[in-house]
Design a protein that fits this description.
This protein is mainly beta. It has one domain. Helices cover 9% and strands 35% of the residues. The chain is built from 1 helix and 6 strands, in the order E-E-E-E-E-E-H. The longest helix has 8 residues. 18% of the residues are buried.
Length: 85
């Protein structure tokens, strides 16, 4: 990964997917992790090893390396935007 992750980068599970949130902090207190905000769910800490790629202001994660609670939150990130919710 040549690009550096920055606060504000959008977060995705795959390139071309809909974004589910944004990076809030990079390596807080020197730890090898990110803090991301997931729409409709709040902040989550993610190990840097879960990052699959970085480009064009996007951070793409490997879903299999994410906590089950975070995966559930991602699945509901856009519920508030859907009619009837």
């Amino acid at each position: 990964m040549n690009e550096k992750i920055e606060v504000g980068f959008q977060t995705f599970l795959s390139d071309g997917d809909e974004e589910f949130g944004a990076v809030r902090a990079v390596a807080p207190a020197g730890r090898s992790e990110l803090v991301i905000y997931v729409e409709n769910a709040g902040e989550f800490t993610v190990p840097i090893e879960a990052v699959e790629s970085i480009h064009s202001g996007k951070v793409i994660f490997n879903c299999s390396k994410l906590d089950v609670r975070l995966r559930r939150a991602i699945g509901h990130a856009h519920d508030a935007e859907k009619p009837g919710f």
